[in-house]
Amino acid sequence: MNVRLSACGALMWDAGKLVWDDYLGHRQFALAEGVERVLRWFTVFRELDSVREMSDDPDEAAGWHKIATVLAENDILIAEDGPRHRREQAVEQAWRPWGPLARAYHFSTRSDAGTAMRTAEQDNEELEAKVVTDPPPPAFWSLPGTTRVALPDADPGVWRHRDLIDVLHRRRTRRYFGTAALPLETVAALLKTAAGPLRRVDGPLTQEGVTLDPGGVLTDSWQRVFKTSPSGGARHPTEIYLYARNVEGLAPGAYHYAAAGHTLEFLGRRLDDERLVAAVGDQDWVGRAGALIVYTSVIARNQWKYSFPRVYRSLMMDVGHLSQTVYLLATAAGLHITFTAALRDQILEELLGCDPAVQLVLGTSVIGTPSTG
């Protein structure tokens, strides 16, 4: 039987052990010392018995053969033209443009028919106990040592189009902007409506266990917050930063939106237009925008409630929901807007002061006034 090392697994060093992760089968195996030699032997298809050639000592050769047999029984070594080989060929072909790490992430977080699911009651019971000894990370951030800019209250007059169906049909991606500055009251209304906490309790949100804090924000014992965009488990991992390039009343530069207090916190950093364009994938139209809204994800907020890695997917969904809300709000205010994920993450991380180990830059909305031409 010809066998070869599986193409849909990975070796990693974990807690002092060399581990084989079979992401198609959702299985992990701790490997004994020396097993990696067998894996190297079978980087191409070879007869299983050929592993005996690794040693002239009969006993040692028999040991290598025993190890190879166990590896083949567990699909770490796969049989040529067998079911697992054919499945891997299909996976490799479909995912080739994105490379092995992308497919490894997808299949390692894919649920199969036997995946155990928890009920909402089980989750709530566990979280009620957890919050006593392991409080969740804060639902809102405020950055100490920054200069704060109070924003005006949301003015209903900024919304030129208020009918939802009308706004949905008007929504367009527009990458051309006018030279006029963005009005601060419009920016403020957009930020508060998109990212501020809701202050009204109605319908099923009045269920037992849900309360209002003194500020009127809807919360519960593990800081569940409700906003105008949905978020998995009401964790709202997305933080919003504003890069003001041409906004009335704001010094150019990067700001953090402190949603709980409806203020902007000036980070004291700015980019010239050339560097700003470089940060957003060399798209030169960014250099004519009034402002950028940068979305980052605070992974600890979701990790506190969900320990399984599949939830990484929900971080992307969260930004998708929120950025669409921003799209519609900008349209309602008569602004031009586009969204892009073509970013040089490192430039934006340095601009915003984000540690990429704990806070991920995921995308940006680019906004400006309409062009007059």
Automatic annotation (TrEMBL):
GO terms for molecular function: oxidoreductase activity. It comes from the Bacteria. Pfam families: Nitroreductase. Residues 170-362 form the Nitroreductase domain. CDD domains: McbC_SagB-like_oxidoreductase (cd02142). InterPro entries: Bacteriocin_Proc_Enz (IPR052544), Nitroreductase (IPR029479), Nitroreductase-like (IPR000415), SagB-type_dehydrogenase (IPR020051). NCBIfam families: antibiot_sagB (TIGR03605). This is SagB-type dehydrogenase family enzyme. It comes from Sphaerisporangium rubeum.
